Amino acid sequence: MEPKRFACFDLSHKSIKLLIGYCLGETPIVLYTREAPIDSLIEGGLIADREGLKKALSSFAKFDEPEMKLKGTISELCLCLPPFGLKIYEKNESTTSASSDQRIGRVDIANVITKVKNETIPGGNEVVDIIPIQFLLQSGEVFANPPVGKQSSSLGVKAMIHTLPKAIAQDYQSLVNEAGFRIKKV
């Protein structure tokens, strides 16, 4: 079974960068990269020329690299947003185990992350990413990765919440959608 490929766009004031790859275990494998200059389409973190940027993004939808035997169309991607106005908050949350045998399951991980997502964000910002730093069990054990299968009546998480001003995040997200791409939730 071939690993599922992913595509990522990185938008900055100087260029659009595309990376196509997959993960082999914990190791990212890069198959293809491309970069195109976009001078004056983004200024100060804001979209200055919406139609020009949409056209530039659309040009990345199809790729054909015969020497690498790589050809395809991108319809879904991960979006890396510029950090203008980025605010990072730390949040601790906990939940009780949903399992009758008090083993941590994927539903417990989802529940505790949802509690972090529901945090009220000050200043008109929007959550663009949540990065769990550590998971904690009732016994005091600490894990860097989700402790699925471990026994505990409760699960805690310490997470970093990355936020951007709503106007900036939504402007980029809608532009990428208008250019014909779906944004993958990760």
Short structural summary:
The protein contains 3 helices and 13 strands. It has 186 residues and is an alpha+beta fold.
Secondary structure blueprint with pairings:
Layout: E1 6-11, E2 15-24, E3 27-37, E4 42-43, E5 46-47, H1 50-58, E6 62-65, E7 70-73, E8 76-80, E9 87-96, H2 106-117, E10 125-137, E11 142-143, E12 154-165, H3 166-178, E13 182-183
Parallel strand pairs: 1-8, 8-13
Antiparallel strand pairs: 1-2, 2-3, 4-5, 6-7, 9-12, 10-11, 10-12
**Which structural class fits the helix and strand makeup?**
alpha+beta
Q: What is the ordering of alpha helices and beta strands? A: EEEEEHEEEEHEEEHE
Q: Quote the distance from N terminus to C terminus.
A: 22 Å
* Adjacency order of strands in the biggest sheet: 3-2-1-8-13
Main pleated sheet: 5 strands, mixed
Q: Number of domains in the coordinates?
A: 2
Helix content: 10-25%
CATH superfamily of the largest domain: ATPase, nucleotide binding domain
Low-confidence spans: none
Total helical segments: 3
Mind explaining what this structure looks like?
A hairpin with a 3-residue loop joins strand 1 and strand 2. The two termini are 22 Å apart. By secondary structure, the chain is an alpha+beta fold. Helices cover 18% and strands 45% of the residues. It has two domains: 6-83 and 167-183, Nucleotidyltransferase, domain 5 (2-Layer Sandwich), CATH 3.30.420; 87-165, Dna Ligase, domain 1. It is globular and about 55 Å long. Strands 3-2-1-8-13 form a five-stranded mixed β-sheet, with helices on one face. A four-stranded antiparallel β-sheet has the order 9-12-10-11. The chain contains three helices and 13 strands.
